[in-house]
């Protein structure tokens, strides 16, 4: 792939890539990602994990803000390792996916890294990325993206791959690969599977334009827009509310919801849902909860 440094692009093109975005909120290399993550001293520092054992909420924080938290091969390795560990950990009930810095949640892949790769290395990179996104969707624990700044290309794909997403009013979203001649093929999968309407999805993919938080909300890319200073509090509140519910009920519900997409007919969907409902009702959490509800009703 030819290299297209942002600094060499005409100002007019840059202006078109940054609609309605205050200059102070945008990194100079924007959605085209940034320099290699090699300047970070250790791959262990690229991703931070914080477990709140009292609530069952675990946060994963992309920690390369000077490079706009790009999904380099090392970052994807760390995400894959932590998600694999979390998926086997019964003490973790909900995951939040967040990022360090104010300018970017994640600016997609590292183009300098991709520029120097062989075909085989690129294949390995995108397989790693696809595996991470698939794990987020299929693992038992629900995930919540907390988005500030820009989320572009694979960064937007990361948001879409989480089960829920909140963002600040200043957040911006886009599929910028087409700007450098690389259609966002793998992010297109996340757009399609997330229920974003096809015309809006294709407009993002074919123009490379950024859209504001409210537009992303209307597309279904995110679920709620909040003031920036309340974003952390709102995300944690949502995570704790979900974590306080029955783990089996939450996990079964997440898996069922995504499996419904694979059902070919309405009858198949209801058959699957019936099976899951009956299974859920046999669990001690549901038995206890229903017993308490019925008992309280009789004592009124």
Automatic annotation (TrEMBL):
GO terms for cellular component: mitochondrion. It comes from the Eukaryota. It holds the Pfam family ECH_1. The keyword Signal does not apply. GO terms for biological process: fatty acid metabolic process. InterPro entries: ClpP/crotonase-like_dom_sf, Enoyl-CoA_hyd/isom_CS, Enoyl-CoA_hydra/iso, Enoyl-CoA_hydra_C, Mitochondrial_ECH-domain. It is found in: Mitochondrion. Keywords: Fatty acid metabolism, Lipid metabolism, Mitochondrion, Transit peptide. One of its GO terms (molecular function) is hydro-lyase activity. Its main location: mitochondrion. May play a role in fatty acid biosynthesis and insulin sensitivity. Belongs to the enoyl-CoA hydratase/isomerase family. This is Enoyl-CoA hydratase domain-containing protein 3, mitochondrial. It comes from Thalassiosira oceanica (Marine diatom).
């Amino acid at each position: 792939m030819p290299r297209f440094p942002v600094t060499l692009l005409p100002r007019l093109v840059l202006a078109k890539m940054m609609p309605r975005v205050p200059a102070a909120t945008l990194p100079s290399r924007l959605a085209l990602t940034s320099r290699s993550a090699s300047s970070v001293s250790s791959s262990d520092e690229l991703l931070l994990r914080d477990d709140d054992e009292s609530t069952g909420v675990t946060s994963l924080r992309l920690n390369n803000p000077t490079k706009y938290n790009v999904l380099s091969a090392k970052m994807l390795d760390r995400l894959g390792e932590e998600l694999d560990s979390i998926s086997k950990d019964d003490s973790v009930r909900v995951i939040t996916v967040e990022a360090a810095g104010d300018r970017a949640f994640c600016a997609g892949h590292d183009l300098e890294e991709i520029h120097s790769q062989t075909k085989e290395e690129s294949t390995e990179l995108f397989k790693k990325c696809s595996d991470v996104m698939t794990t987020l969707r299929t693992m038992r624990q629900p995930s919540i993206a907390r988005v500030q700044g820009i989320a572009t290309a694979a960064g937007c794909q990361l948001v879409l791959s989480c089960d829920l997403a909140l963002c600040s009013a200043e957040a911006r979203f886009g599929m910028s690969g087409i700007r450098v001649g690389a259609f966002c093929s793998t992010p297109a999968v996340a757009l399609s599977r997330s229920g974003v309407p096809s015309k809006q999805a294709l407009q993002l993919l074919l123009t490379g334009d950024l859209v504001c938080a409210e537009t992303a909300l209307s597309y279904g890319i995110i679920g709620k827009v909040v003031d920036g200073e309340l974003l952390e509090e709102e995300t944690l509140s949502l995570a704790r509310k979900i974590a306080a519910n029955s783990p089996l009920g939450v996990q079964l519900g997440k898996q069922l919801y995504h499996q419904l997409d694979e059902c070919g007919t309405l009858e198949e969907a209801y058959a699957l849902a019936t099976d899951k409902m009956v299974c859920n009702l046999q669990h001690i959490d549901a038995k206890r909860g229903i017993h308490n509800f019925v008992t309280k009703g009789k004592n009124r």
